[in-house]
Write a structure and sequence with these properties.
Pfam families: FAD_binding_3 (PF01494). Keywords: Monooxygenase, Oxidoreductase. This is Monooxygenase FAD-binding protein. GO terms for molecular function: FAD binding; monooxygenase activity. The two termini are about 35 Å apart. The protein has helices at about 10-20, 45-55, 60-65, 100-115, 165-170, 260-265, 275-280, 320-340, 345-370, 375-385, 395-410, and strands spanning about 1-5, 25-30, 40-45, 65, 70-75, 80-85, 95-100, 120-125, 125-135, 135-145, 150-155, 155-160, 180-190, 200-205, 210-215, 225-235, 285-290, 305. About 45% of the residues are buried. A seven-stranded mixed β-sheet has the order 6-5-14-15-16-13-17. A five-stranded parallel β-sheet has the order 8-2-1-12-18. A hairpin with a 5-residue loop joins strand 5 and strand 6 (about 80-85). Helix 1 (about 10-20) packs parallel to helix 4 (about 100-115) and helix 2 (about 45-55) crosses helix 8. The protein has eleven helices and 18 strands. With about 425 residues, it is α/β, with parallel strands linked by helices. The chain has a domain at about 1-35 and about 100-175 and about 295-370: 3-Layer(bba) Sandwich (FAD/NAD(P)-binding domain). Bound molecules: flavin-adenine dinucleotide. Flavin-adenine dinucleotide (FAD) binds near residues 101, 127, 159, 186 and 324.
Length: about 425
């Protein structure tokens, strides 16, 4: 089958690799004229790594990423509230990887060039809309030089991110993403490894949170690339209320250190000098915490959505890239299960893909609106704003444990290998 994918991001490229492996002829249109390693750190949960492993990408990931050993919750004084072992250390079949988003996307792009053929990847082609005929879909393309053209396929997958043109075509009334009043500053700093050099920490509370994790193996000089995120709540009334974010959401909008020091300037932990890390930023970007309401339907005939185009969610719980990768595996599986020899089979496959993925992703959008795992931080801040001598005096560790397990189960974490995964 001829499949066209709009968007050469993490979801689109993973889908391209999975569908090409299954024998489909795949083409990708990416609006950027030249691909650059954009973004800062992201996390890939073990179930997503299992999918990437099934595509033969594990060695490349191991060479460039950090196999995360644990997620630690801490208060704003740096005291540990809870340590959740992750990846192989947590008994999963696969590692959890912390990785530079841009480097990861470049690796997927190069792999897709090798496997699909360089002429199957079209940089500088923005899909601006699509129309359907009885047995085909025609994508309307705007080239970076202003030319217009069309591409024909049996199936069109909209993996074109949070500002998806295909989503807008089918849901024109939707409007801009919804903002919850929180602003995120995302930076990278070269620093000495902290803790064991493989731990992700979330510290603070709902009004001010500092998230930090390494995203590359230590260098020869002992320094390591550290990713960090400062969340500051600018508007209290926005929780779930859908405010309009200050300016269009742009993943590459530069931020300023001076906006952060009034809030985080005195956060000095035994194990990390937070203002020092912030001031050492090599790169600093600003992004409002936005999502969109879950859609009642992703597919329209021979067109469907995937990744952020289908279910943009707050970047909480390491789900953004992970869920896009799970979508990629699910659509490939559905096409394998149902076949593609006629329109009815294709429709059944797209329905099966959506039935599997849409309710789960809607649930994660909703859980993240209720702050996901950050709920733990708020509970402790409320009960012990000045810190504690003994955690047990503040909260029953079993209460945290139950909460973490519930969130992870609902978000699709599984300690068993995925269908395509090998146990290792
Ligand atoms: C430049 C950039 C930087 C990011 N940085 C971070 C980060 O630091 N941390 C984080 O947590 N998340 C980041 N994200 C988001 C994160 O990558 C996604 O949440 C997640 O990986 C889901 O991936 P996706 O493929 O669905 O969407 P995306 O990764 O957003 O990919 C969408 C792709 O589609 C392309 N595109 C957009 N519109 C069209 C169109 N009409 N036609 C063709 N192509 C189109 C975009 O250029 C992009 O390559 C970033 C996204 C982008 C685009």
């Amino acid at each position: 089958m001829d499949i066209l994918i709009a968007g050469g991001g993490i979801g689109g490229l993973t889908a391209a690799l999975a569908l090409q492996r299954d024998g489909h002829r795949v083409q990708v249109c990416e609006s950027a004229a030249q691909l650059k390693p954009l973004g800062v750190g992201i996390n890939l949960l073990p179930h997503a790594v299992a999918v990437l492993d099934s595509l033969g990408l594990l060695p490349a990931l191991q060479a460039m990423a950090v196999p995360t050993a644990a997620l630690v919750f801490a208060n704003r004084h740096g005291q540990t509230l809870y340590r959740d072992a992750r990846g192989l250390d947590g008994g999963y079949s696969h590692p959890q990887f912390s990785i530079h988003r841009g480097d990861f996307q470049m690796m997927l792009w190069r792999t897709a060039q090798e496997r699909l053929g360089a002429d199957a990847l079209h940089a500088g082609e923005r899909v601006v809309g699509a129309r359907q005929e009885a047995d085909a879909v025609i994508a309307e393309i705007e080239h970076s030089d202003g030319r217009r053209s069309e591409r024909r396929a049996d199936l069109l997958i909209g993996a074109d991110g949070i500002h998806s043109a295909l989503r807008r075509q089918f849901h024109p009334q939707e409007g801009p993403p919804r903002w919850n009043g929180m602003m995120m500053w995302r930076g990278t700093t070269l620093a000495r490894p902290f803790l064991d050099g493989r731990t992700m920490v979330q510290a603070g509370h709902r009004r001010a949170k500092f998230v930090v994790y390494p995203i590359a193996p230590p260098r020869a000089d002992g320094l390591q690339l550290i990713n960090w995120i400062c969340d500051i709540r600018l508007r209290e009334d926005g929780l779930g209320g859908g405010l309009t974010a200050p300016g269009r959401e742009d993943w590459n909008r530069p931020g300023r250190v001076s906006d952060l020091l009034p809030t985080f300037g005195h956060w000095r932990f035994d194990w990390l000098d937070v203002p020092g890390v912030i001031q050492g930023a090599q790169q600093l970007l600003e992004w409002p915490m936005v999502d969109r309401d879950p859609l009642p339907r992703w597919r329209q005939g021979r067109i469907t959505l995937l990744g952020d185009a289908a279910h943009p969610m707050y970047p909480i719980g390491s789900n953004g890239a992970t869920q896009a990768i799970m979508d990629a595996q699910a659509i490939a599986q559905a096409l394998r299960d149902h076949g593609t020899s006629d329109s009815a089979r294709l429709e059944a496959a797209l329905a099966a893909y959506e039935d599997e993925r849409r309710p789960l992703c809607a649930r994660i959008v909703e859980m993240n609106r209720q702050e996901g795992l950050d709920y733990i931080l708020d509970m402790v801040e409320e009960r012990a704003p000045d810190g504690f001598e003994r955690l047990e005096d503040v909260i029953d560790p079993a209460e945290i444990d139950t909460f973490v397990r519930r969130y992870k189960a609902a978000a699709g974490h599984r300690q068993q290998p995925g269908p395509d995964a090998q146990v290792r």
